[in-house]
């Protein structure tokens, strides 16, 4: 395959313009493409199936209210990403944005941290894709195949589609997303009709939060995690037709639609369980159990929605997140081989292969003798700690960037107040993830995160000391510039 690739060569000292970059194919994606890809990355069925029970366990029947508060926090983060994308759309996304704002040390450290976080998180998705496939085949075809086999199979399918081209892989992720959304909303409508006697506004009443504000606080980080993937569109900037306009539109549209979808699904679930949190706790996957309770076919299509959703997440998330690995390679933050692209499709195949290879190694080494649902929950939590830390830094970086580079265009609300509120909204989720007193293995995750941060900082310090031109390279490749 080497004969069919372009490689990003190491950059000599001096101007970034001196370097010949491997570029991704321009004008491939519309605003609809990247919005749908973003929502496929969020994976409402996938995220809701595996995440909602945890929210109910701590927030009680007012879980929809907790989801609403989390949606507001995600919208604040969306403002930050949209602000950066208007100024300097880049495949490097958070890495480029932080590097341009805070310097090469922060940029490289953020890059290593978020890439490791994404790879750990995607390994959890591999486990989830295997488990939902296992349920589908076992329950309806009476064929018992391990989740490990399915996880490997669907990773191979996702890799093939991604290497084929961003348009093809995005289209398939979009198809899977449309299927899951239709099924989710149909099931929600059926539940609301069947359990109409339990309809009330109680799920949105703060008085019904378990433990009051404590229930909201404990459920809030779990609800935030439902939205992880909202940042997908930023890394597709180079292939987007009008990135400065389309990426912000895709960000806000995706967050808005996902917020509405989760509010409907959470409300329908609480109503479906007749406002009984204990019943939710007893369910393996609450929404699927509710659908099965309605009827065999409804249960079947709910499992199919979970199946298509996990595939959509696997494709859309990897498509976006592996591009950070690719961009880090071509800008010299990581080995240049990661910057190779295929000649025909101009897709970053080395980054894709590396991303999946490490992810598979993690999921099978960590979860070989464990239940797939537990593997997903644990790896997703560990990865999310690292990802959310970078979210926090990015919010602080936006006002710094604007004051340093575009002081005349600083908007006090959009560029200062909202990013700082976004940063503040993440403090409790981060604390909830790393607070002392948690059970194993969660109690070890803060130590793992600290080790990753230490490695990232040491690596960044070594790189910046060895290469004084590194600061010029981070974020130097702007999506709509030649």
Plain-language structure description:
The chain is mostly helical and 482 residues long. The chain has one domain: Amino acid/polyamine transporter I (Up-down Bundle). Helix content is 71%, strand content 1%. The protein has helices at 31-42, 44-59, 63-87, 94-102, 104-140, 147-164, 166-194, 213-225, 243-272, 277-282, 286-294, 296-330, 349-367, 372-405, 412-425, 427-434, 445-466, 470-473; strands at residues 5-6, 341-342. Strands 1-2 form a two-stranded antiparallel sheet. α4 (94-102) packs parallel to α14 (372-405) and α14 packs antiparallel against α15. The chain starts with a strand and ends in a 9-residue tail after the last helix.
Largest sheet, in brief, is: 2 strands, antiparallel
Oligomer: single chain
Question: How many beta-strand segments?
Answer: 2
Q: What is the number of helices?
A: 18
Q: Give the CATH architecture.
A: Up-down Bundle
Helix fraction by DSSP (H/I, runs of at least 4): over 70%
Instruction: Tell me what portion of residues adopts beta-strand conformation.
Output: under 5%
Query: Which strand order does the major sheet show?
Result: 1-2
Which CATH C-level class is it?
Mainly Alpha
Mean pLDDT: 90
The helix/strand order is: EHHHHHHHHHHHHEHHHHHH
Contiguous low-pLDDT stretches (5 residues minimum) are 1-19
By CATH, the superfamily comes out as: Amino acid/polyamine transporter I
CATH topology: Amino acid/polyamine transporter I
Distance between the termini: 26 Å
Structural class: mainly alpha
């Amino acid at each position: 395959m080497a004969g069919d690739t372009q490689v990003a060569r190491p950059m000599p000292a001096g101007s970034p313009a001196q370097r010949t970059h491997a570029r991704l194919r321009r004008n491939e994606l519309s605003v609809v493409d990247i919005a749908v890809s973003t929502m496929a990355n969020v994976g409402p069925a996938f995220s809701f199936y595996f995440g909602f029970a945890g929210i109910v366990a701590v927030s009680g029947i007012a879980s929809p209210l907790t989801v609403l508060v989390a949606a507001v926090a995600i919208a604040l983060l969306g403002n930050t990403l949209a602000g950066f994308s208007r100024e300097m759309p880049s495949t490097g996304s958070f890495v480029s944005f932080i590097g341009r704002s805070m310097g090469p040390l922060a940029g490289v450290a953020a890059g290593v941290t978020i890439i490791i976080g994404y790879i750990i998180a995607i390994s959890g998705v591999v486990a989830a894709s295997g488990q939902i496939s296992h349920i589908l085949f076992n329950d309806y075809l009476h064929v018992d195949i391990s989740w490990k086999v399915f996880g490997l199979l669907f990773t191979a399918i996702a890799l093939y589609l991604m290497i084929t081209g961003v348009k093809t892989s995005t289209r398939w992720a979009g198809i899977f997303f449309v299927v899951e959304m239709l099924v989710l909303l149909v099931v929600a409508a059926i539940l609301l009709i069947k359990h109409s006697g339990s309809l009330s506004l109680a799920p949105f009443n703060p008085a019904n939060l378990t433990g009051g504000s404590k229930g909201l606080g404990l459920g809030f980080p779990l609800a935030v995690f439902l939205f992880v993937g909202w940042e997908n569109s930023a890394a597709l900037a180079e292939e987007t037709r009008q990135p400065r306009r389309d990426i912000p539109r895709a960000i806000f549209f995706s967050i808005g639609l996902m917020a509405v979808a989760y509010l409907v699904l959470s409300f329908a679930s609480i109503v479906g369980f007749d406002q009984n949190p204990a019943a939710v706790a007893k369910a393996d996957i609450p929404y699927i159990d509710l659908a099965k309770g309605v009827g065999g076919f409804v249960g079947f299509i709910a499992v199919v929605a979970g199946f298509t959703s996990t595939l959509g997440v696997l494709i859309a998330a990897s498509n976006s997140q592996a591009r950070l690995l690719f961009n880090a390679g071509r800008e010299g933050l990581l080995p240049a081989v990661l910057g190779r692209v295929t000649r025909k499709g101009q897709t970053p195949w080395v980054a894709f292969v590396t991303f999946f290879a490490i992810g598979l190694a993690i999921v099978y080494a960590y979860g070989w003798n464990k239940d797939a649902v537990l593997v997903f929950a644990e790896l997703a939590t560990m990865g999310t700690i690292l990802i959310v830390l970078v979210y926090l830094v990015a919010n602080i970086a936006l006002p710094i960037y604007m004051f340093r580079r575009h002081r005349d265009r600083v908007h006090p609300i959009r560029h200062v107040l909202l990013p700082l509120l976004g940063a503040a909204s993440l403090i409790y989720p981060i604390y909830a993830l790393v607070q002392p007193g948690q059970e194993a293995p969660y109690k070890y995750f803060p130590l793992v995160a600290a080790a990753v941060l230490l490695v990232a900082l040491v690596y960044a310090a070594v790189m910046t000391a060895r290469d004084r031109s590194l600061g010029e390279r981070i974020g130097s490749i702007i999506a709509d510039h030649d």
